[in-house]
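Anyone? Bumping this.
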Amino acid sequence: EAQVTQNPRYLITVTGKKLTVTCSQNMNHEYMSWYRQDPGLGLRQIYYSMNVEVTDKGDVPEGYKVSRKEKRNFPLILESPSPNQTSLYFCASSVGFSGANVLTFGAGSRLTVL
Amino acid sequence: AQSVTQLDSHVSVSEGTPVLLRCNYSSSYSPSLFWYVQHPNKGLQLLLKYTSAATLVKGINGFEAEFKKSETSFHLTKPSAHMSDAAEYFCVVSDRGKLSFGAGTTVTVRA
């Protein structure tokens, strides 16, 4: 089944403890991206990647890192999480980075930072 | 810079009546526009997209949207709401890899 898989789905952590949210897609998509969803703000793009070793900042990249060493994986790294990073995170991918391409979303990862 | 404004944060309709979700956008270029739906505790699913072809776009589950360049709008409609349409809806503008989402409109359907 074609899908985007995120792990973990739920995580509670403490301030400053490094964590990684993994994202993997099995569709050979070139484009991958990360979003956070907060009430009343919709989804905001954190980082995106147009291909292997090519990443760029979205609207809210502060406090996050990403890497794209393989086409299928696009992990989101929080080096020193803070409570304002408590949010629902979505990974998504698409065939290419043309604006017309449709995104396939993962099921979401709910992160709580205490 | 691009942006999206969804004019209603919450819309409540009776089952069987029309639904209208309003979206205005700004973009420096000719954008692609999308509507996505998110059911509770689920990821986002594409309803429909506009990519500079026909200005009236038909999507899944009876939804359609009309692109009006002069008004910079991309409103979503459905002639007859169903209980299963209760969800959150997002208007999205896309330009060369960068996406901007509206804040979302929550739709409630009354029996």
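Late reply, but here is one note on the structure posted above: The two ends of chain B are 41 Å apart (CA to CA).
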